[in-house]
């Protein structure tokens, strides 16, 4: 894992003291709320429905156990004993007091964490593949490149006031576990025919009110020019992006309106202009960063055998455990979607336990996923049963990864002041309706995603089944969408027709899954059947 | 009727204007009249609250309640965490938002 050097630490510590001073001045009346608001937002502090909300960055979703314990400590000491892991691999606390915020940031800084650039029209926390460094299908660990971009984008003076917020995802495998092409910039680390490492750049993707899949911008950028190519894209966006209309200000609108071809022309011209300006980090610096992500001390000669005698363990093993690149190891996902629970929420005690388990079983590492679960990336197969027993005792062993109850849900109207409708109760009702794990397994991979408003933090456009909460004359209403995917088979979901009330949407989910079960062929997933048949049979069943 | 709400500056807690100070319980809210702009200006200047605004409300058997679901949830806490609810004086408070 990356360790801060003295520059990183000083930047974060200085920022804490700067914010402490800003909070003191606000409380003393020396600055107004209008003056203070942009300052607190730059430090991830929002004013939400019930209180201040603090969003803490988890760079590329990677945490060590000390950091996870700190997240638990903050929940316990300053919040109400829990936190919410988000679809951008961050964590949010819902009940923060302004007067505590500087102390929280100071505590975070002691474990090399912060909340900088988790809000505002700047480059946000960079997300990545939760299986980084463990997946068999990656060409390299993507996190050093994400870290290089993190360093470049932190406090970048030119990109601190962009037309709108800006999100990167960096992956290094063909299987896309990070919804890469639904980001402002999506980067896939690849190897060319000569065996050299480079970056495939996509730009102009995103969800929100105008969802777009990012087109390919460049097939191969040599890794030594990773940063200058990103800078070229950002410069074109900063120059031409629309500042006159908030709803048209994201890069996806620029790429769409300008046309990908013209956009690429502009980027390439800017890229040429930037060459020779020493924007990229020297090779030695990249090597220094890569060294931080060296593999842990994997053992060799480990047993591949797993005792499947316990049937509950076997169900979890089949569903929540994935192949690791090294023999004798596996990747285990801890589901934060217990039946009837709140997707992505974890209590302080659960966070402490996950930290302990990461330390004991996974070389001190865990990962936050964009699906709001936690991954232990490097578990010895021989330890899986012991791990499962501890998770099971703590209610963290739901065997539902990628099944219908593994629902992504944004905070919605229960917490979010921008929401039109509640997301969490809908997720809970659906999870309850499909509680039978055999039924879930029978339905197979089914990604269900719920947003409480058009901003799409719950990724509803990218759900095999998506749900969007809307306000219909003061009451909550839910639109149903089908056919989206955030994976390598990326697609945008389409609305079925008129929306439903809270119970109606749960029935509607059952209706569309019934159509799927009746019509599927061979090993088709829900989304495959939808793609083969189109919307018609689903619509017919829903609306007659 | 209109009632006045804001967030307490230090804690961020949702508060309601009672006629002479702020309460965390919406049932303590009073109807505000023509002087609301003066109250807002004075309270913002005193740095007690931020983000002051009025909301539509009605008088019910359980006391004063906002009309819109968003303000109802704001007044009583997340519907999915009954343990964190600020209960109005109504035994059925757990359900009345829905
Ligand atoms: S999608 Fe809307 S309701 Fe949900 S968290 Fe985002 S802004 Fe809030």
Shape of chain A: globular
- Which band does the percent of strand residues of chain A land in? 15-25%
Adjacency order of strands in the biggest sheet of chain A: 1-2-5-4-13
* Rg value of chain A: 23 Å
Uncertain stretches of chain B: 93-98
Mean pLDDT across every amino acid position of chain B:
86
Q: What's the number of extended β-strand segments of chain B?
A: 5
Largest interface: A-B, 29 and 24 residues
Can you identify the CATH class of the largest domain in chain A? Alpha Beta
InterPro entries (chain A): NIR_SIR_4Fe-4S (IPR051329), NiRdtase/SiRdtase_haem-b_fer (IPR005117), Nit/Sulf_reduc_fer-like_dom_sf (IPR036136), NO2/SO3_Rdtase_4Fe4S_dom (IPR006067), NO2/SO3_Rdtase_4Fe4S_sf (IPR045854)
Keywords (chain A): 4Fe-4S, Heme, Iron, Iron-sulfur, Metal-binding, Oxidoreductase
GO molecular function (chain A): 4 iron, 4 sulfur cluster binding; heme binding; metal ion binding; oxidoreductase activity
Pfam family, one (chain A): NIR_SIR
